[in-house]
Structures are given as structure tokens and as C-alpha cells.
Specification:
The complex is a heterodimer. Chain A is an alpha/beta fold. Helix content of chain A is 25%, strand content 38%.
Chain lengths: 437, 250
């Protein structure tokens, strides 16, 4: 067994205390696999800029308290109130995952609406268990401690239906929390669906959330997916989205990271069959000592297929962000058209961005491009706006908003765009107040 | 209204203005002419508050206030307007948004309420008609992809909407074809008012055929070396700037 930042003996004990439900074999397998894998470490190329040690330390402390039993954490009245407030802001069919458990009230409410072609289940309440993928070390950690799985199947293409909202909220009101969230989404042939995955925090104690979403798009299926992360500033998070794209399927994804202390997102797309199209958009806004790391990987296994990726970031204070976008065009994937860009605006000279677009091409007939920029607010534009009567803060707000707008206006789920615009505006204002107030 | 006394300005280690004195009163139109590098644009930028320029001596008062102590936005709110020689393209910032924000900043300074959306649109359209501007430019990003003529017209549009007390137009005529020059001149002439002063900074006499100045000043090596009425501009056109340089040296 390799050396771990996670205390494996503690983890093993905790896993053994979890109930002997249908997920038990999944946990046992994942635990064994986790024991054989290296925990993320800055000596590994993929983790060069992001140090997960604080999250491991928090996990160990949390595990130490749970060597006797792991109770299900009930949703408190206060948490319920907060959940109700959040879901009221965005029109969607909401299902809530609180502290790693699919909240049954929201699940039943959704089921009672009987939306056509949509099946939403939790592992706790259903005999039908989806495959729980655990190919990488953090997915294994997730699966080893898993309590529940949210399983969404879409079989139809309902016209003008509301998006499916997934609220992931963890309660750290009383003590630090460590949670594993797992979502499995399957779109059957020619099914269409829109999703909003919203990450929120309750309470002021430290949190570590490890969220995994595995998605499969069958032939001709179309998914639009927006992930919004506005966790508290005591929050550590590791998130992974995997998606398998079959013939002529399409995934449009947008990721908004505004909160959190230490955030690492991985997106892993595999284009398995010809005709697929992927769009990945991202916006990260970081201040203080926030650390936000986005890694994406698109495997063009076959062609023709297209991928478009654009991530943008605005950083202030001592924020540190990482962008690593990898597109791999495998041998024989002719007709691949892959474009990728990453643009960054640094409002402070102490902020830091490490950006690395990567292309690996093993096919001949391909169109690929990538590019990255890092800059400051244009002093000429600032002076021009000020000469028209806007103060520094107003001028900076206009320029940063314009920079972010490029992503916000392309948010693939229209219902959530006003909400995103509002939280982006609020975060930009706080970034600017920190610099020009 | 504007009182500049013995103004010395440098950028980096180069002295650009070396003792410039100028008085502008309400209702007057002044033309400041001079060869390239004489300090014309520096003067315009310093009055607007560009921070790259270092004032090393002299004073500038505007409406009785020490202008040099004010931030660029404070100057604008008091009623100072600079029409840029090179208007800046600002992708993603809506032209109407800027125009409205600028107008409201000025109105706030004067204790007026914010303009309502309908009234603003009417005002903007009216001024655009005067300048023969495509109304679609209002909903584009500020100056982005505008032709040279559209950019200059956009500057005049801003001036027309903001109704400044003092407008400084820096090389507004450069790069304009005859139609654009006529439209811009019409816009400037419409702004002439007993309560307002206009300073035209220009290299050529061409604009002055359309906008008749009350005073013409010739700038050379950072100082005003000669002042006169509009006939001075005609003289310059005939004899060139060398004549002034020689006269100044002699």
C-alpha cells in the first residue's frame, strides 16, 4: 500500500461502520482501490499547483470522530429554510442533496409531478443501483464513503420543460463536515434535458465536499448543464464530471466558480462516437486567498466531432487560480475540430494564475487551436471612462462585467442566467471594492 | 472660466509644456494650433487629468477651482469634456450604457435626478440625428469596430448629450472625410453658447473653415508663441509653422 495523506486505518474503520446496505460492496471495492492509489500530491504533474493537504487533514479529523458510528445527518429546520430560499430563486424541478444524502421530501415532490420521460431515484430508496465509477483516486475516496447516489434518467424530449435543479448543500453549523456526493445521469437516445447543479454552504465551520457526477449521453441526446459553485470561504471542494458521448450527442456545459477556499474541478469528456459536439464554458472569480483550479480533459477518440472550450477568470488580492485544459485527439480521430481558450484579468499584482492549454494530436486531418491570455484592466479604457464622469470603481465594474459577460451571456440554461448575472455582479463588486474603495 | 498660468508639464524626463499661459472665458471658441510635438495633445490630456503627465509648475483653475487637484471623473462632473484624438474601443461596454452613466454622473453633481430611460433614448436619438449617425451605434460596444468617422461623431454625440461647460476637442478633424467633417462641425456649432467655451486643438486650418474661432493660438515647444484672431490661422495655412518657429527664435 502506498503512503497516503488520508489515514487509511481510520478510513477503513469508518467504512466498516457504515450500514450494510446495497452500496456496501461498492464501498468495499472502492476502499481497496483507494488503498492502491496515490493521494493527490504536488509532486504529481496534475496537482502541481493545488495542495489538497488541508482537505486531507480535515478528513482525518472527521474520520477520527466516526470510528464508532456514522449517523445520518438529519436536515435541520434552519437548513430546510435555507434550501427553500435558494430553490425559490431559480425556476427548476429541484432535488436536494444535503450532507451527501438525497433529501427524500424533494425527491417525492419531484416524483409526484410525474414529469414525462424523467426518472429520478436515490440509491437509498431504490433497488436499482446505477454503476458507480471510481477510476481516479478522489472518485474512489468518494465511493468508499458513499451514503447515497442520485440517479437521473431521461428518456424523452419534453418541449419547454423546466430544467432539473440539483442543489448540493452541506451543513457545517455545528461542526466541520466532510461529505461525498454522487450523481449519475443517463440520457437515452435522442433525449434532451437541462440541468442546474448548485453548490451552497450552510454554517461557518470548515467543510470538505467531494462531488462526482458521471454522465452518459446516448446517440442524439442533448444535455445542457450549468454548475454554480458559491460555497462559503471555509470550504474545500474536489469535483469531477465525467461524460461519455455517443453518436451525434451534444453537451453544453458552463461552470461558475465564485466561492470556496480551495476548489479543484475536473471535467473529463470522452467522445466515443462520431458526430458529437462539446462546449465547455467557465468563469471563475476569486479574491482574498481563494484558490480555484480547473482541469479539463477532452478525449477525441473518434471523428468527426467538435469541442469548444472557453474559460475566463478575474482575480484580485492574493487569489490563485489554475487552468489546465487538455484536448487529446487520438489516432484515427480524423475530422476533429477542437478549439480552446483561457483569458484572465488580474486586478492585483499579488494574484496569480497558472494557465496551461494542452493539445496532443495523433491524427492527421484535424483543426485544433488553443490560446491563453493574462492581462490587467486596460488603463486607456479606464481613463476614457473616468473622463466621462465614471469613478474608478464604476469604470472597473463596467470593464470587468464586460469581460465576464462573454461567458454569462452564453450560459446554456436560460432559466438560470438572471441568477448568475446577479451573483456575478455581486462578486465583481466585492472584488472591485477590495481594490478601489 | 479656465485660467492656465505658466504651466510646466513633463512626461518621464521630457519637458513638454514649458510655461503655458491661457485664459478662456464663457462664450468663446479658441483654436490651439501647432506642429506635431508642440504639446497640443499634452495640454488637452493634462486638463482632462491623465495621470501619466506630471505637472511640475504653474496652475490651472476651472470655474474657480484648482483643477489639478481633481480626479478625472470630478473634472468631468464639473462640466469638462475632452473629445479624444483616439477614442478608445471598449468591447462589451454598451455605448448607450456609457452615455447614460456619464449623463447621470453629471446630473447627480448638479443635484438632478437620474434621467429616465425613455427621456434618455429620445435625447440620444435627437442628437444622433443632428450628427447624421446610425442609431444602431447606440447599442454597440463603445467605439468597437467603428470607422474613424463614426468614432469622432461618437465623441461629439457624448459632448452633445453631456452639455459640458468647457469642451476640448483634440484633433477631432483628423482623418475625417468631407461629409464627416461637415457633420462634426455642425455638431460643434450647435454647441456654441454664451455659457460654454470650446477649445479646438488642431494641426490644420481645415476645421476652422467650418467652426469659426474667436481666438487662435500657436503652440511651439510647449509655449503659446503667438495669439490672434482667425486670420492667424489663415496666415499659418499660407506660410506654414516654420514661419512661427523662426519668429519665435528671432
Amino acid at each position: 500500500m502506498s503512503s497516503h495523506l488520508i489515514d487509511f486505518a481510520l478510513l477503513e474503520q469508518a467504512v466498516r461502520k457504515l450500514p450494510g446496505d446495497a452500496l456496501h460492496p461498492v464501498r468495499a471495492n472502492a476502499l481497496a482501490a483507494f488503498g492502491q492509489s496515490e493521494f493527490p500530491d504536488q509532486r504529481q504533474e496534475d496537482w502541481k499547483y493545488t495542495n489538497l493537504a488541508p482537505a486531507a487533514k480535515l478528513s482525518n479529523a472527521w474520520l477520527r470522530k466516526r470510528t464508532t458510528a456514522i449517523e445520518a445527518h438529519a436536515v435541520s429546520a434552519l437548513l430546510q429554510e435555507q434550501i427553500d430560499q435558494i430553490v425559490a430563486k431559480i425556476p427548476a424541478r429541484w432535488v436536494v442533496i444535503a450532507n451527501g444524502l438525497v433529501e427524500t421530501r424533494s425527491l417525492h415532490k419531484l416524483a409526484a409531478q410525474q414529469p414525462a420521460g424523467l426518472t429520478v431515484r436515490s440509491a437509498a430508496e431504490s433497488a436499482h443501483l446505477p454503476t458507480v465509477v471510481a477510476g481516479d483516486v478522489m472518485s474512489r475516496f468518494n465511493a468508499a464513503l458513499i451514503r447515497d447516489v442520485l440517479h437521473i434518467e431521461v428518456s424523452a424530449n419534453p418541449e419547454n420543460d423546466k430544467p432539473i435543479g440539483i442543489l448540493i448543500i452541506d451543513d457545517a453549523s455545528d461542526e466541520a463536515s466532510v461529505t461525498q456526493t454522487r450523481i449519475v445521469i443517463e440520457l437515452e437516445e435522442r433525449a434532451h434535458a437541462s440541468f442546474i447543479e448548485l453548490h451552497a454552504t450552510a454554517g461557518d465551520n470548515q467543510q470538505f465536499a467531494n462531488c462526482v457526477c458521471n454522465m452518459r449521453l446516448a446517440g442524439g441526446a442533448k444535455a445542457r448543464y450549468v454548475r454554480i459553485q458559491e460555497r462559503g470561504l471555509q470550504h474545500y471542494q474536489v469535483g469531477r464530471l465525467t461524460a461519455q458521448l455517443e453518436r451525434n450527442s451534444e453537451l453544453k456545459h458552463a461552470a461558475f466558480d465564485l466561492g470556496g477556499a480551495l476548489i479543484r474541478n475536473d471535467i473529463d469528456i470522452a467522445i466515443r462516437e462520431p458526430g458529437a459536439a462539446v462546449e465547455l464554458l467557465g468563469l471563475y472569480l476569486a479574491s482574498g486567498r481563494q484558490h480555484i483550479d480547473n482541469h479539463t480533459r477532452i478525449d477525441h477518440c473518434v471523428g468527426p466531432a467538435t469541442s469548444r472550450e472557453e474559460y475566463r477568470g478575474i482575480l484580485n488580492d492574493r487569489a490563485r487560480c489554475v487552468f489546465n485544459g487538455k484536448a487529446i485527439v487520438h489516432a484515427g480521430a480524423d475530422g476533429t475540430d477542437a478549439r480552446q481558450s483561457n483569458h484572465n484579468l488580474l486586478l492585483s499584482d499579488r494574484a496569480e494564475i497558472d494557465t496551461k492549454p494542452e493539445l496532443e494530436i495523433y491524427a492527421d486531418d484535424v483543426k485544433c487551436s488553443h490560446g491563453a491570455t493574462v492581462g490587467q484592466l486596460d488603463p486607456k479604457a479606464l481613463f476614457y471612462l473616468r473622463s466621462r464622469g465614471l469613478n474608478q470603481s464604476e469604470a472597473a465594474r463596467a470593464l470587468t462585467r464586460a469581460f465576464a459577460e462573454t461567458i454569462v451571456e452564453r450560459t446554456p440554461v436560460a432559466e438560470v442566467r438572471p441568477y448568475i448575472q446577479a451573483i456575478v455582479d455581486r462578486k465583481l463588486q466585492s472584488l472591485i471594492d477590495g481594490e478601489f474603495a | 472660466m479656465l485660467e492656465i498660468r505658466d504651466l510646466h508639464v513633463r512626461i518621464g524626463s521630457t519637458d513638454i509644456l514649458t510655461g503655458l499661459t491661457l485664459t478662456v472665458n464663457a462664450g468663446e471658441v479658441h483654436a490651439i494650433m501647432g506642429p506635431n510635438g508642440s504639446g497640443k495633445s499634452t495640454l488637452a490630456q493634462v486638463i482632462a487629468g491623465h495621470e501619466d503627465y506630471q505637472v511640475t509648475g504653474g496652475s490651472v483653475t476651472f470655474l474657480g477651482r484648482n483643477l489639478l487637484e481633481l480626479e478625472p471623473e470630478e473634472r468631468a462632473r464639473l462640466g469638462l469634456f475632452l473629445g479624444f484624438q483616439y477614442p478608445v474601443e471598449i468591447p462589451g461596454v454598451n455605448n448607450a450604457y456609457l452615455l447614460k452613466a456619464a449623463l447621470n454622473a453629471r446630473r447627480k453633481e448638479r443635484g438632478q435626478a437620474e434621467i429616465d430611460a425613455f427621456e434618455f433614448l429620445q435625447l440620444a436619438r435627437e442628437k444622433m440625428t443632428l450628427l447624421d449617425m446610425d442609431p444602431a451605434l447606440l447599442n454597440r460596444s463603445v467605439n468597437e469596430g467603428f470607422s474613424g468617422g463614426e468614432k469622432k461623431r461618437n465623441e461629439i454625440l457624448q459632448m452633445a448629450v453631456l452639455e459640458p461647460v468647457l469642451a476640448i476637442l483634440d484633433e477631432t478633424d483628423s482623418g475625417l472625410d468631407i461629409d464627416a467633417l461637415k457633420a462634426v462641425s455642425k455638431g460643434v456649432n450647435a454647441m456654441r453658447h454664451p455659457d460654454r467655451a470650446i477649445i479646438l486643438v488642431t494641426h490644420y486650418q481645415r476645421l476652422l473653415g467650418y467652426v469659426e474661432p474667436d481666438y487662435v493660438h500657436v503652440l511651439s515647444k510647449g509655449q503659446i508663441v503667438r495669439s490672434g484672431d482667425k486670420s492667424l490661422a489663415i496666415q499659418l495655412e499660407d506660410m506654414g509653422y516654420d514661419w512661427i518657429r523662426e519668429a519665435a527664435a528671432g
